[in-house]
TrEMBL record:
The keyword Zinc does not apply. This is DUF2723 domain-containing protein. InterPro entries: GT117_domain-containing, TMEM260-like. Pfam families: TMEM260-like (PF11028). It comes from Hymenobacter gummosus. Keywords: Membrane, Transmembrane, Transmembrane helix.
């Protein structure tokens, strides 16, 4: 036994080493897009990220960041390495899990029992360990798991928690007859408690672990017993998800409000009373279990305690929040706001088992539970959450077609929903016909399960078409002819020839046939971390990015069967090879084809080792701005890399980043009114009562014909005074502030502005004494109100910018007063006389300033390297760069400076050549300035390249079976042809213009216009 045990440990650690080396070699050296920048920043300084937080991850990330020893440029790679090591340990625990299951099969000892004393032969050991190697390496090189392993996200650590509890449960199963075996169950409870501070996905392993417990404790298990076990296990999951995570803090909050508001006691007295009661009940429970000699009750209580000990990592959230750090989302610094944070209330909710569909018309709104905020000496009601009520006839079981968003309703049609407009008999207004239950379930199976789960699953074990959003599965029989370059040349186009899938299916059938109880355990692990998540998430018909990372648990579970597939191959080889050693060697060699192929195909698109685009884009945006600037951004990719750059590397901490979506909340506006590093508070004049949640969330446009235009400063004063002049009645009886005209103006003290030195010499004539604009909106949201307040209050003391990636609807038609500076638009009291809203080109180009920013301040590290994979997300910012280079080059051409124009364009195509960053739909714009400076050959090459690519792409997407899913790709290629056509027309190239026009006419009708 000692020999096999040593081999099992040795080979396991060797597999761990392979995984670790792989992930460290392909690790992203800095903060990648999406949530990674936020997590790295919050780990480094223990800040408060978006709900529901990940305190366990943050604490470990902080520990890893300490090894930077003050070199802030190493912090990101160290926190990324936390994910890499989490993934490596997941692979290690998976290896040991597979070998435990394989040993039962090889030694013909299926089921639940202690087999530690059984010593396999050399041939059997080879087969057992080989199956572990194959399965573990298959997970190592699987697409979704590898993606999570090389960036600072929570899914790698969540997978580790899942792998650890499964391995621990099998360790318990081997020791269940020992007097102290329950310590393994308590350790599992502690790991699950810790996992709550990472991600809740780990809790979905509980039903599978419950089956192991049932089969091990019952010598003659029954189907009914198994079903009851699953029900009880599911209840346990629900109790943790609802009863413990938000439930205990919610009860504590109830006591707190009661004791402070009703009994007049000090703050936190109710919380202390709740803790005394709770710990008293625990003490009574332990005392009772000892008196009754109930081992089950005692173990259950100990498990609860250890879950709570692990869950206690969440105390870092209110503790750190109370110090008002620079990132403090939702400000959960007391028990009531902490409950809201845990429940993710800012994101709203989706119907799960019963609710309305998209056609449902609200019949009323009722006030729900109050939201309390801490006042001076008691908790005050900030607002009552409104609950929308619908007719029971509009509700269905398992509502999948729930979203009334017009974009979502349009997308539903692609998945078999017959969206029909009808007249509502009650109101006479147009409405949508009620979807049938068949359409509802069809969307569940075709989109939510088929497209958003099984497609991702097959990406990992069959092949992936490309990195284009909505990319399908690359089947072995798929033809590769006539593919657009964006698909054919994508490093993410990986073909595994379905070998991992087939091997896993062999393992699945072999496992079911030889060891039903353990196969059932793995099966329910796959089911609950796959299909159950699909049901729970209830995803809308379009997502901003691919969500395959959500199903890492199902990938892990199937990798177990890939490993056991080696045993299935060995069983098939029995007739040809009698010797255990030879048969095991051949089976292992055949099985290794799967992970080897996965590694060979996946290395180039998972290697991020030289990719700096995300952080460079953040630094470039910050370096576009003047000192002490205010920058309005979108969320996610537009903000989180900026947070990383400022919080970790200390880049441009004089700039205050203001996230527009967060400016709709009172807690974020409060934060913006406090200083941050070198940034003074934002110039917001409104008091908290004016913008607190539930107050001035939006102001509707209610026309007053007697008011032609309104002075912005006077308007803001009326809003702050809650003036009756702006109030309108609502159905609820509560008055609402409004605005009487869309036309606003802001008087400018031109003398003061001139003294500030804001005006470039060549724009002095453009200074206006009064800024005028038409809001062009039906309502002003709170974020717009904040911007207007700052414009009225700032008096041009601080530069105010919009990121150029912000939705133009948030510009409030201020574009005539924009000046383009790098990647941002600055608002100035200077009106561009040549501004044309139809051109789509915002902001006056101040050439020398733009030249200094784009050519001297910006970094474009490795964007010229064709060997680095830049996926769809990484290609968006380079497109933005090219657009700004074009604007600068064209400005020089218009000014007659062709030398500078050529220099700018040469530099643009040098740092971002087509070979590494393929031409995007902005590039045809360069044709006119290139022709103007004599670069006709380059201009022709761009037009020919873009036309040919668009032609091939449009043919592919409009004839593909699922071509309707690629609306964005089709639209981008049509925009490219439009741009080529306009450019060719401008330079008088009739042949190329005609070709582009013919293609446009060919494909535009297919788009309905």
């Amino acid at each position: 036994m000692q020999r096999y045990s040593r081999l099992n440990n040795l080979v396991g650690w060797l597999v761990f080493a392979v995984a670790t080396i792989t992930y460290l070699l392909t690790l992203e050296p800095t903060a990648s897009f999406w949530d990674c920048g936020e997590f790295i920043a919050c780990s480094y300084k223990l800040l408060v990220p978006h709900p529901p937080g990940a305190p366990t991850f943050l604490l470990l990330g902080r520990l890893f960041s300490l090894f930077s020893f003050g070199d802030v440029t190493k912090v990101a790679v160290l926190v990324n390495a936390l994910s890499a090591l989490s993934s490596s340990f997941t692979v290690l625990f998976l290896f040991w899990t597979i070998t435990m299951l394989a040993k039962k099969l090889v030694l013909h000892r299926p089921g639940m029992h202690d087999d530690r004393t059984l010593e396999p032969t050399t041939g059997q050991s080879l087969l057992i360990l080989g199956s572990g190697v194959v399965g573990a390496l298959a997970l190592t090189f699987s697409d979704s798991f590898w993606f999570n392993a090389v960036e600072a996200e929570v899914y790698a650590m969540s997978s580790l928690c899942t792998a650890a509890v499964v391995w621990l449960m099998l360790k318990w199963e081997n020791r269940a007859d020992e007097y102290d075996s329950d310590k393994w169950l308590i350790l599992i409870a502690y790991v699950m408690g810790l996992s709550i501070g990472v991600h809740l996905l780990n809790l979905l392993a509980i039903p599978a672990l419950g089956l192991v417990y049932y089969f091990r404790r019952h010598a003659t298990p029954t189907w009914m017993g198994g079903f009851v076990t699953l029900v009880i296990s599911s209840i346990i999951v629900g109790l943790i998800l609802v009863g413990i995570i938000p439930g205990l803090p919610s009860i504590a909050g109830w006591f707190e409000v009661l004791f402070v508001n009703s009994f007049g006691l000090p703050f936190n007295s109710g919380l202390i009373f709740f803790l005394l009661i709770f710990f008293g009940l625990l003490w009574f429970g332990f005392r009772y279990s000892r008196q009754r000699g109930s081992r089950l009750l005692n173990t259950a209580l100990l498990s609860l305690v250890f879950i709570l000990i692990g869950y206690s990592s969440y105390l870092i959230i209110p503790i750190r929040s109370s110090f008002l750090p620079t990132i403090n989302e939702n400000t959960p610094n007391d028990v009531l706001s902490f409950v809201s944070y845990l429940k993710r209330e800012q994101y709203g909710d989706r119907p799960l088992l019963y609710g309305p569909q998209f056609n449902a018309q609200p019949i009323s709104q009722t006030e729900g539970a109050p939201r309390y905020v801490r006042g001076k000496d008691k908790y005050e009601i900030a607002e009552h959450r409104l609950e929308t009520n619908y007719n029971d006839a509009d509700k269905v079981l398992l509502p999948r077609l729930y979203s009334p968003d017009p974009g979502h309703i349009q997308q539903y049609q692609k998945w078999g929903v017959n969206v029909r407009q009808v007249e509502d008999p009650a109101t006479g207004q147009p409405s949508y016909a009620k979807p049938t239950m068949g359409e509802n379930l069809g969307f569940l199976f075709r989109y939510q399960m088929g497209h958003m789960f099984w497609r991702y699953f097959l990406w990992n074990f069959v092949g992936r078409d490309s990195d284009v959003q909505q990319a399908g599965v690359l089947w072995p029989t798929e033809k590769s002819a006539n593919l657009p370059e964006r698909v054919a040349d994508s490093m993410a186009r990986n073909n595994f020839f379905a070998i991992p899938l087939l091997l896993g299916l062999v393992g699945l059938f072999f496992h079911v046939r030889r060891d039903g109880p353990n196969a059932l355990m793995v099966g329910f692990l796959f089911l609950f971390t796959g299909i159950a998540i699909v049901i729970y998430l209830n995803q809308p018909p379009i997502e901003p990015r691919e969500r395959d990372y959500t199903f890492a648990g199902a990938t892990y579970a199937f990798a177990i069967w890939i490993g056991l597939g080696v045993l299935g191959l060995a069983d098939l080889l029995k007739a040809a090879l009698k010797a255990d050693g030879a048969r095991g060697g051949v089976a292992v060699a055949l099985g290794l084809l799967a992970p080897v192929l996965m590694a060979a195909q996946g290395w180039d698109d998972h290697d991020r080792s030289d990719r700096y685009n995300s952080v460079d884009s953040a630094k470039n945006l910050l370096n576009s701005l003047q000192p002490n600037a205010i920058l309005f951004t979108n969320g996610d990719n537009d903000t989180f890399p900026l947070w990383y750059a400022q919080e970790v590397e200390g880049v441009r901490t004089d700039v205050r980043v203001a996230v527009l979506s967060y400016l709709n909340t009172d807690w974020y506006i409060d934060q913006m009114k406090r200083p941050s590093y070198k940034s003074a508070p934002l110039p917001i004049s409104m008091e908290h009562a004016v913008y607190q949640q539930g107050t001035n969330d939006y102001l509707p446009y209610v026309e007053n014909p007697s008011v032609k235009d309104v002075d912005l400063k006077q308007f803001m004063q009326l809003v702050e005074q809650n003036s009756p002049l702006l109030q309108v009645a609502t159905q609820s009886g509560r008055p609402l502030m409004s605005f009487p005209t869309r036309k606003f103006f802001l008087p400018i003290d031109t003398t003061a502005v001139k003294q500030l030195g804001l005006i470039p010499a060549d724009r002095r004539s453009q200074l206006v004494g009064r800024m005028e604009w038409d809001m062009g909106r039906g309502a002003i949201e709170k974020k717009n109100l904040v911007i207007l307040d700052m414009l009225a209050t700032n008096n041009w003391q601080r530069p105010i910018y919009f990121s150029s990636t912000v939705n133009s609807q948030d510009f409030m038609n201020l574009q005539p007063y924009f000046q383009l500076e790098g990647l941002a638009y600055r608002i100035l009291p200077l009106k561009d006389p040549n501004y044309d809203p139809r051109s789509g080109q915002e902001g006056y180009v101040e050439k020398q300033l733009m030249y200094d920013i784009m050519m001297k301040r910006f970094a474009f590290r490795n964007l010229d390297r064709a060997d680095i994979f830049y996926d769809e997300n990484n290609l968006r910012f380079p497109a933005n760069y090219r657009d700004k280079f074009y604007r600068l080059a064209q400005a020089y051409v218009d000014a007659g400076d062709k030398v500078k124009a050529k220099e700018v364009m040469d530099y643009c195509f040098k740092v971002m050549p087509d070979k590494s960053i393929p031409y995007d739909y902005y590039v045809p714009q360069f044709v006119v300035p290139l022709s103007a400076v004599g670069e006709t050959q380059k201009a022709n090459e761009i037009m020919d390249t873009m036309t040919n690519r668009a032609q091939l792409a449009l043919l592919y997407y409009t004839t593909a079976p699922e071509g309707s899913l690629f609306d964005l790709e089709i639209q981008l290629n049509l925009l490219t042809l439009q741009s080529v056509y306009r450019a060719a027309e401008q330079i008088g190239d009739r042949a190329r213009a005609t070709k582009a026009l013919n293609l446009l006419q060919q494909y535009y009708p297919q788009q309905g216009g």
